[in-house]
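Internal tracking record. Fields below are filled automatically when a chain is submitted to the structure queue. Please do not edit lines marked as system-generated. If the sequence contains nonstandard residues, flag them in the REMARKS field before resubmitting.
Queue: standard
Priority: normal
Entity type: single polypeptide chain
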Amino acid sequence: ISLSVTTKYVLVIDDDMIPGKDYLSILLHTINVPGRRGLLGSIGWLLPRPQSNMRFASYRATANATGGLYVPDLAYDITNERLLETDYLCSMWFAETAWIALLFREPPQTF
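SYSTEM-GENERATED OUTPUT FOLLOWS
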């Protein structure tokens, strides 16, 4: 559906998310601030830096601190009060509509 909209921006929402009443107006304001143009969302993931063999540790690692960081994560009292650049977004994505086509220009990897 997001590939067929005719608006300048598109908001993609997971089925288990409910945005707040000012969420869309905040996103519209933010994406139009100079230097803030990009893919925006409300939940992000910070990956650990690659190891010497250029491999990432598993995000499922629980025995050590190499699994990455989910932000915000209220279960661990991890919040953020400002924009934070993350490695990827989860749950809600807001972007220029033209960018959505970039997500589908190559077939996804399957296993």
